[in-house]
Amino acid sequence: MNPEGVPVHSIQAQGKFSGWHARWDRYGILVIFFVLLVLASIGAPHFLSFSNFLNVLQTMSFVLFVALGQTLVILSGGMDLSHGSLVSLSCMATAAVVAAGHPWLGLLAGLSVGAFCGLINGILIGIVRLNAIIATLGMLYISGGLALYFTDGKSISGIDVNKVQGFHFLAEGKLFHIPFVIYLALFFLVLTHFLLRHTRFGNHVYALGGNEAVAEIAGINFSRMKIVIFVLSGLSCGMAGALLTARMLTGEPQVGAGTFLLESIGAVVVGGNDIFGGVGNVGRTAIGLMILHFLGNALNLMGISTFSQQVVVGVVVLLFCYFGLARRR
Amino acid sequence: MERKRLMMMFVFGILVAGFGLAGEGLVSAKDLQIAVMVPNGVDPYFTAKRYGYEKECEKLGAKMLFYDAGGYANVNKQIGQVEDVLQRGIDGIIFGATSTDGTVPVIDKVIDKKIPLVIDNLDSATKKPVLRIMKNGILVGQLRAVYIVDRLKGSGKVLLLPGPSAVTLCQEEYQGFITYAKHFPGIKVITEWTASSPDAGMKTVEGILQANPDLKAIATFSPPLTVGACKAVQASGAKPGDILVVGQMLDAGIDDYMRKGWVSATVMCDHIEMAREAVRMVVRQIKGELKPPQLVLIDHYLVDRDTLDKFEKSGSSYPKEWRR
Amino acid sequence: MKRKKGLASFNWSRHGTPLAFGLMIIVFALINPAFLSVRNLSQTLRQGAILFLIVSGQGLAILTRGIDLSQGSVMSLVSVATISSIYILGTYWGSLVGVLFGGLCGFINGVLIGYLRIPPILATLGMLFIALGAELVYTGGVTLTNLTDVDQIRLFWFGGGMLGPVPVPVVFAVFTGLILYFVLRCTMFGRHLYFMGANPDAARMVGVKANRVLVIVYTLSGLLAALGAFFLTARLSMGFPHLGEAWLVLSIGGAVLGGISILGGEGGIWEAILGTLVIVFLDNGLIVSGVSSFAREAIIGCIIILACMASVIRRRS
């Protein structure tokens, strides 16, 4: 949300002044991550192992796609609440097509469903000028309901692993002992980074997030931008959903209803991006997501129950917010 | 500036990898280690079973590692937990799936690695040979149907609240009920899939009662839904027993409602004994005494007001002092 | 100003939702006359009273350009806290303590948002996790029942009892609605609240103490959610650790449907009432008409979007 009339001093916040304050702005999050790793290694048994790290990174990769999409939306001053449900819907769509015998068409189906819902979001927000929160909230409901509706709430099974080995490999295969999905996630991370930092589109995204009114005056087409941004966001959910189908070889109608949305927003915030938009980058989101996942992993290994973990995550997100905002002032 | 940042990222990556490699091989194990993985630890069903797992592991001299996926939607997380357990090395796994089909690939991996595995109640639809101990969902549904059809003498309107549609057990209980009731054309069944919460149950039953004032019986999946149904029936002015309510288990004060006549009967199972049996099964498999595939279906029995104090409670309840 | 002709002359944005509501009632009544029975209306209004309390709390937060995502978890927490406190302190004191827990959560939210300047969406999100985690750890997910008979009867009166021909929660809701209406329209605090929502910078320049207002707003939001949970818990006679799960989306939906603009500064108690009534009667109507549970979710989503389009169009014209 970028409340109208609230000036955002994005140039200042980008850390262009010198001194240790600026350096903390830019690298502080890495320090925090390292401290977390050290603490976890001491406190959690079996944390410090290559296999554990790879495992966490593999599970995290699925969420990273969604977080990348969310980063795009938040940087441009909006927010996408439909992420969880879109993942579920794409998963179902992919599974339906894969079960019919066409794995790669299934991947396309998942991506298309995500992009199409993103398009609807984009139109509602860019042309009808609905508030992003409302539009995506409604989409959350609708796509979530749809995911359940088509199969009466049952999952789509019957995918033979032997027939779709290539497809399954995307999510579970290993290249040089590292899960393939990690490579995929890295690839998209770099791609999104390039998109944001080295294209005109990326510039416009930041401009929109910085100050919408000024951006429009400067000639940026608000409607078109919003549509493209939300299509990309939906596409990222489609990717995550399709890959989940590849991992589970099943269509689960509520697979996205868990923590996808919370993690996608949480990662963006914890990483140090400005929740109001205009400042930040995907690298920060990636680190934010890693912090959340490694923290959860450490707590799990320490035997801390899932509900206690929730308390910890809540406190951590709040702390990051506070420090992030103190920085902004 | 760009290059400097890239360098930093590279160094960072190397450091993390270094940490990882340094830590490899610090793992060691002594007693038998058994990983118990449940899909939804907050469910009182699983809280109770934890008691069973814990005590039986203690008794058999095994160390229990408890993993909670945190909810049926967290399939991805549970898959990660299984992979985690595979990596660190474990002697046996007791597994309750978040998703019947979604966990198949990872469970297949466990079986391929020849790690002793018992699937406990929440099934994973793997086709490979595995030990299973399961509730008999179809039987549960049928028991409810038998009681109701019998009491209603073969004709009347029945509301079925099977619970959330995404849960396979609910689907099974639904099937069991419907296929039995089908034999009696005088029994008309209305089905409402809801979340397993008391306010959803109450609101749904209230609405259905309005549209169907001649409703004679309600069959519910879980204690929260049972309570909600009772509250709605009470509010409609009916007297205890006017509308039969048949639920499952005795948590959430259902025994009290039964004594007062609002709940007519409930389907029970010895879930804690089931947990103990799962531990015994996996230990026997570790020792080579038990080989897959095996399917153990636990019993279910119907309890009503007359038999409420007469059935053996040790298999389904834990002492009050025990805290997880 | 040109005079619009025919259909266009009808003020859709202002009267659209009430008209839709009226139409909906008629359609449901036609499908099943039982929909309009006294008992059904009374039961639905009882549910509406609970939702109204929660929606007005959310509405207050939204009016100041914020949001309260913790309402669901606070409800769960209060349900558990109320029953636990009743075990120790008896019906009346126990109930009070339980509700105050909700106020406490709201107060913490208010301080985080008003003084520490954390954005409402994030502060209340954190509180969502903390409240939920705390009460789940405390109960282990187990429902709290075992009230003594005396306590249960006394408590039940609040949720399920009647004052004359009217359900108790409805009386309470009306009373609360009147007070809130008065506060919003006739006090300085109310004026400041609207000002802050409409134009935060101007408000600050004029000397409105934003931090104090925000603390009060979120404390009220927590208290109102707590009261909603209290009446629900009283009616169910149990502390259910997941009570609030489904209610958060309804509270936001109810506020927005009724016409409280998500952008802040616009709307009030009437809008909260309208939104509440639409949701409870829509839900009840669909059940009584026999519509499948899955279709219900999708329908509610569509309605939220349509209602919002109406509110945005109103803003633009």
What this model shows, in words?
The complex is a heterotrimer of chains A (329), B (324) and C (317). By secondary structure, chain A is mostly helical. Chain A has 14 helices and two strands, in the order H-H-H-H-H-H-H-E-E-H-H-H-H-H-H-H. Chain A has a single domain, classed as Orthogonal Bundle (ABC transporter involved in vitamin B12 uptake, BtuC), CATH 1.10.3470. In chain A, helix 4 runs parallel beside helix 6 (132-149) and helix 4 crosses helix 11. The longest helix of chain A is centred in the C-terminal third of the chain and has 27 residues, at 222-248. Residues 1-17 of chain A have low confidence and may be disordered. By secondary structure, chain B is an alpha/beta fold. Chain B folds into two domains: 32-135 and 271-299, Response regulator (Rossmann fold), CATH 3.40.50; 137-268, Rossmann fold (3-Layer(aba) Sandwich). In chain B, the strands form two sheets. In chain B, strands 2-1-3-4-5-11 form a six-stranded parallel β-sheet. A six-stranded mixed β-sheet of chain B has the order 7-6-8-9-10-12, sandwiched between helices. The longest helix of chain B is centred in the N-terminal third of the chain and has 22 residues, at 2-23. The N and C termini of chain B lie far apart (53 Å). Chain C is mainly alpha-helical and 317 residues long. Chain C has one domain. Chain C is built from 13 helices and two strands. Chain C is globular and about 55 Å long. At the A-B interface, helix 2, helix 3, helix 11, helix 13 and helix 14 of A face helix 1, strand 2, helix 3 and helix 4 of B.
